[in-house]
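hey so i finaly got around to running the thing on Synaptic vesicle 2 protein from Fasciola gigantica. pasting the sequence first so u can double check i didnt mess up the copy paste, my clipboard has been acting weird all day
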Amino acid sequence: MSISLEKSGRDNFQFVPLEEESASPSVCLERDSDEELKTKARPAINSSSTYTVEDAVEAAGLGCFQLRLFLICGVLTAADAMEMLLLSILGPALRCAWHLTSSEVAAMTTVVFVGYLLGSPFWGFVSDRFGRWPIFFTVLSMISYYGFLTALSPTYVWVIILRLMVGFAIGGGSSSFTLLSEYLPVKHRAKVLICFQVFWAIGSTFEVGLAYLILPRFGWRWLVFASAIPLVLFLFLLKFLPESPRYLVTANRLSEAEHIVQNMFRVNGVRPPEGRLTTPTVTSKRSSRLLELFSKQYRLTTVLLPTIWFGAAFAYYGVVLLSAEIFRFRQDCYRTSSLYPVSSDKNLTAASIQASVVAPGCPAPGCFVLSGANRQRLCHHDCLISWRVCQYSHYRHPY
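ok and heres what it spat out for the 3d tokens, dont ask me to read them lol
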């Protein structure tokens, strides 16, 4: 039993027993109050007892949680790539099947990008309002649904309408890129996001493989139908896809966001930080204003980045969509055997394979170059090299 000494009188002391819960290995000359004991029993609360989503992502590092998310979002990106590359295959195939003019083939490709143009800002606004996960489910469902309907299209007009809806849905596919970036530490973000582009090349190559197997034997309808099947299978992967913690924090759903963050630490095998998840100091209304992009701080970046993206997309899709025309020197349509009475293009599949067989390996070197290179200089040299390659191709094959 511990004791304390209390002074009573001039030089007399008396022994007073202490309670068990307030026992101390040292001798006290004065007993603490209950409130003081409770304060000493728990750690002091300071600024480190709360953390934001950014702090949690940096503390969790790069682990199994990010790898799983990398694969799931990559599969979704590959599905979008399949539908986009289908344009370069479907156009020449329908030219032979329905005897379309060059303008009609070009219009069929154009409407997909018109839908993409309309869908991208729409799905971006909706994902900030309702979250990333519902957008993934809706977008994949729409792409697969309108993909199946395209295979049943009776006329050219129906193909135009349905591909417009597919393009509108594909506009929301970029949410997978955004979601992945939200879970990546700053140290690894550039390398991982560059490597993430490999899935786009994988999806494109997979679509070419389907065309090689299906188009000459069964025709374009079965190719479109087969291209939509993986999208339905990918819907089951959404069960393992977490919601964006930044969206949950902005929507004041802190308990759900903290549950996801704790699961991220558990999967990565990292001890979670002490304290509780809190919102950032910047208010959500100010951070979500679109006009904030044109403020003095971000104005130059807002102008330059869309310009660079426009040039990159113009060059990329120009090469991809014209690949079949570049590698073909004549447009020959033929009719297959009576067993499979469909019209096809003789050189279509071979041309597409030649144009995209090397695509999966292209983003891989960038994963390592970006880790130590100046990104502005690298972007400059990348554009310069691309321009020189296209220029050389023109002089090498002018017709």
